[in-house]
Task: structure prediction
Amino acid sequence: MRDRQRIDPTQFLRDWSSPLAKFNSALIEHYTGYAGGRFLPSAGKSTFKVIDPASQEILAELPSFGGSETSAAVESAVPVLEDPAPLETRARWLTEIARAHVDNRDELGRIVTLENGKPLAEAKGEIDYAAAFYRDAAQRLDVLRPRKLKERPKGLDWTVYSRPAGVAGLITPWNFPVAMLAKKLSGAIAAGAPAVVKPAEKTPLSCIALFHLLHRLGLPPGMVNLVFGDAPAIGRVLCEHPAVRVLSFTGSTAVGKLLSAQAAPHLKRMSLELGGNAPFIVFDDADLDLAADQLMTSKFRATGQTCVCANRVFVQDSIAAAFTDRVVERVRALQVGHGLEEGVTVGPLIDLAAFQKVSSLVDDALGAGAQALTGGRTPPPAPDKGCFFPPTVLTGVRKGMRILGEEAFGPTVPIARFTEESEIVRIANDTEYGLAAYVFTRDPARAERVISRLRFGHVGLNSGTGPTPEAPFGGMKHSGLGREGGEEGLLEYVELQTVPHP
Ligand code: NAD
Result:
């Protein structure tokens, strides 16, 4: 670490001098990639634009990097592996990174709101959530200490070492640009594995801001690296370069499968956090106010653009009307707008493609006989307007409607009815996804019967909460491989080495 006295973690924000809303290409040298401890030259590169989804204003124009910069970044990371930092040093780095998040939460949060659209309070919450991953990893490093077996097989001592697995390629999505990186980078740093990070091109600004903070923390050159621009070219290098031993990806199932296929001949360790289609099941013995409150938390975070958000709401017949009334009342209280405006609780969708997807699912359901109790059919936004879709509660939703089969990634609440416990488990599992599910019942025996049969990696019982740094989180089936968070999240980035010795 460099002398903390000389580090002002907010300096980079003052250097940028103008409010982020006034980002422009004249400042481009500040918004660039990072490799081997230095910001990458950007002169002469082709560029891409980052857009505020709530206003369609251009926030920044960034240089586009590709395969050659990614190879160079990987190679700059290799020397770090020759002399991995001791656990105590890693713990200090993780603690410092957590503190850098907290010290800069207002500005980092503002950048997330500008590039992603989520309300400011939520964006700041994301920064706190991200900080917690680094803090938690710092406290969990004992799991990586050498472990001597109690037994002495073959008359020898046996010691198991956790070695950094190699360079880690980390590819993240736009819906939690800071937190999804934190889940991966905290694990990699804890394991002593240097990382090459590729954020989503829709939301790279918060990640770049974070790298300015990391730069000031004085990590060894090559420990953290950043590239963005030509996603397929970057992805190919991360899949094929022999020094990359772990590829951790969060995003769509389609891209996850593509990366899996590309990496297969190179036998990389893959950690894949992919799409979801979460059922939210409310039984007739549930606390309906609690269930409605938890549905709101689960459903509308990031405008419904989260992998764990309730995507299909199943309500037992006898309480369907009472539960729907409670949901509608709460949805009517939501306020849609630009995330920087006071009081806004729901922001825009990320782009026009997202708007069209949500719109087509709602149209399909309405065309097949569903009714919209709030929101509903919405004309596309004008080119200079944000992609706002109204929170939409649909009833009369039935099997066969696309909205039950596809991940909407938007502010839709399709409510379908069910009759029997046995039937709902089968319906909930009838998806290729297996990420999150939610069950509301006051009966512990029913909860155990249902949850043990659900094929989902995360099941909230009378709770709509998503992941937390302390617990492993990940998907079954086409929702992914591996886990993030908890001890398991750190172990994704280590190779075990067993040493028998007299
Ligand atoms: P996406 O797959 O389009 O993009 C994710 C990342 O992959 C981005 O950085 C993108 O630039 C990159 N990418 C795209 N094509 C690539 C290629 N050919 N090679 C390498 N990288 C490539 O997904 P998205 O639209 O950004 O995110 C939404 C999806 O992510 C949803 O399906 C959601 O459920 C999922 N998600 C899952 C989790 C989880 O923990 N399971 C968390 C958040 C989001």
